[in-house]
Design the sequence.
């Protein structure tokens, strides 16, 4: 189910939110022109929820999330298919490799849970309440006394402290970087955890801590966490891992004693008794398995198949539903990432020249039935995007200390990826690309783009045939200006290992965008993350301007300041030409058998809409369970 444009890499801060305390007396002093004394600062507030900007949409007495059906029936088995393989059941370790789907959320729970109907708001889960002040110099979580791990052991402050210290030292780079900002952590009692955040200067940090998973201190050691990647995990979520066939199959089974089943944030979600996820390295096999009824649900990412492939009997007679659902929120960036750690990619002018040779118009027409839109921003189709917007006075002031960080046409909002004539042999773009390459010291000599007698050649690392097809087309265009780009396909496990070690020249990257970007930008683009193994700074970006824009994003107190920082960051990233922008869809293409159903209301934010295990779906009671063949190997073959 995760194919070309769906990354398996789970960024820790993929969801965010915070509740701003009322300014109180400090505002009154400000209105009368006098400074507010420190002792009159806005008081801390205890709340059921926390939002990054503004107030939570749902009050403390809310019954369920807007996109959940509280009356959804429980029961049945959900059959899913996943593209690729997995070699790990630990989504949080630094050497996690390729992690199986369906663990974060269904098995491991965090202190608070995100509402995907809001840009970044979290509601109580393991943590019953959250307390912080307007400066966000501390955050205190009070745990729900009912919280239990699936073995029946209570979830206590000891588990939170254990998890924090473990992930701070052994977790993913993005976790280690965020947790290192915490001054101290303590637990006054078994159900209270207090973080001192003084000096962190990161207004998002309380939300990042709220999204921390809680691991069992009584059942997990540092050694096991680091070394036993396929050990069956113990969590507090609605499902347990019931069966594991490494690389082939994962079975989740409902915990009959799940402690949070009646909490408002969980009501109507996780409705299946069992979720079976079968893996295959052949997407055609997965599609045939779906047509045969062996898989209940499918996300499609092949335009030709979407247009022509779903004309089969079950679709025609109504047993299969096909829907094109709007994807709300900003569209992230997908593209070929230049590894600027390589000397050949050090010059942004050369990177721009190479990016100019990607012929989107021909590719979209001939490979994708003109169903895609060229991506022109890291926050495309949203108010966060700089595209088409001249920089405001506030943006220019923010960018003023870095006068060469943003190109003029990008500052003015006029830049867009170059367009070809769509014929596949455009003459103008190669001419412009060679002119740019010459300014970087590269010249066409004997049919090769060379500098100092060395021809420009590099490798494009890909993980599957869809990426390979796209990379081969791009490589063919690059040959027109004398550049030799070799395309190398490797299996999923090797791909992830090489990605984590930055062992590539160019790679396909996906930077999903949320409506409230923040902490995760440090791990994607911050200078400190450039050499941190397993970070998602694929390009190796190191720029004081980027770091400053990320800091402004994290420190924004108002929505206006937040938009200013986001657009300024977008301009700096676009000016660096770290990525060859690819394209995106405005809709999510899904198909499913009528034996399952989802609510009419869809979350405004969230990508994909339904998550790894279709959290909001349920099995239609009157539909009999499908009897699956005993040997479905012809569909789920592992050769590829």
Sequence:
């Amino acid at each position: 189910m995760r194919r070309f444009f769906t990354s398996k890499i789970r960024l820790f801060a993929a969801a965010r939110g915070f509740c701003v305390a009322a300014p109180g007396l400090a505002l009154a002093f400000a209105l009368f022109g006098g400074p507010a004394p420190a002792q009159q600062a806005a008081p801390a507030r205890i709340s059921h929820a926390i939002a990054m900007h503004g107030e939570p949409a749902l009050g403390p007495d809310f019954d369920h999330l807007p996109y959940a059906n509280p009356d959804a029936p429980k029961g049945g088995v959900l059959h899913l298919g996943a593209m690729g393989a997995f070699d790990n059941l630990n989504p949080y370790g630094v050497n996690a490799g390729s992690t199986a789907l369906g663990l974060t959320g269904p098995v491991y729970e965090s202190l608070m849970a995100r509402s995907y109907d809001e840009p970044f708001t979290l509601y109580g889960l393991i943590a019953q309440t959250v307390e912080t002040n307007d400066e966000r110099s501390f955050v205190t979580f009070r745990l729900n006394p009912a919280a239990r791990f699936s073995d029946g052991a209570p979830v206590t402050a000891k588990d939170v402290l254990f998890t924090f210290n473990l992930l701070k030292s052994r977790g993913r780079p993005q976790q280690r970087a965020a947790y290192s900002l915490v001054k101290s952590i303590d637990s006054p009692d078994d159900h209270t955890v207090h973080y001192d955040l003084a000096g962190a200067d990161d207004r998002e940090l309380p939300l990042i801590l709220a999204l921390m998973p809680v691991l069992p201190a009584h059942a997990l050691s540092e050694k096991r966490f680091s070394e036993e990647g396929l050990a069956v995990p113990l969590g507090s979520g609605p499902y347990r891992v019931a069966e594991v066939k490494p690389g082939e199959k994962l079975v989740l089974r409902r915990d009959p004693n799940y402690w949070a089943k009646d909490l408002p944030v969980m009501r109507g979600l996780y409705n299946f008794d069992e979720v079976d996820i079968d893996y295959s390295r052949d997407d055609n096999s997965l599609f045939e398995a779906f047509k045969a009824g062996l898989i209940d649900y499918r996300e499609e990412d092949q335009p030709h198949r979407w247009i022509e492939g779903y004309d089969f009997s079950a679709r025609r007679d109504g047993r299969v539903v096909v829907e094109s659902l709007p994807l709300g929120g900003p569209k992230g960036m997908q593209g070929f990432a230049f590894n600027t750690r390589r000397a050949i990619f050090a010059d942004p002018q050369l990177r721009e020249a190479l990016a100019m040779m990607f012929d989107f118009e021909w590719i979209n027409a001939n490979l994708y039935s003109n169903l895609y839109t060229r991506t022109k921003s890291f926050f495309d189709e949203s108010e966060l995007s700089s595209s088409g917007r001249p920089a405001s006075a506030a943006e220019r002031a923010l960018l003023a200390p870095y006068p060469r960080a943003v190109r003029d046409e990008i500052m003015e909002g006029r830049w867009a990826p170059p367009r070809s004539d769509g014929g596949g042999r455009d003459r103008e773009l190669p001419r412009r690309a060679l002119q740019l390459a010459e300014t970087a010291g590269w010249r066409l000599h004997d049919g090769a783009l060379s500098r100092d007698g060395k021809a420009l050649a590099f490798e494009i690392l890909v993980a599957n045939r869809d990426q390979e097809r796209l990379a081969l087309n791009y490589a063919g265009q690059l040959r027109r200006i004398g550049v030799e780009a070799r395309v190398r396909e490797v299996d999923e496990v090797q791909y992830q290992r090489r990605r984590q070690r930055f062992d590539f020249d160019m790679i396909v990257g996906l930077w999903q965008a949320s409506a409230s970007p923040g902490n995760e930008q440090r791990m994607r683009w911050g200078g400190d993350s450039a050499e941190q193994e397993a970070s998602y700074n694929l390009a190796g970006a190191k720029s004081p301007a980027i770091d400053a824009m990320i800091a402004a994003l994290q420190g924004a107190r108002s929505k206006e300041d937040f938009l200013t920082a986001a657009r300024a960051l977008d301009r700096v990233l676009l000016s660096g030409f770290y990525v060859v922008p690819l394209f995106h869809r405005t809709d999510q293409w899904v198909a499913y058998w009528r034996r399952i159903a989802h609510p009419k209301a869809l979350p405004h934010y969230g990508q994909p809409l339904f998550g790894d295990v279709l959290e909001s779906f349920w099995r239609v009671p009157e539909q009999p369970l499908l009897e699956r063949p005993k040997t479905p190997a012809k569909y789920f073959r592992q050769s590829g």
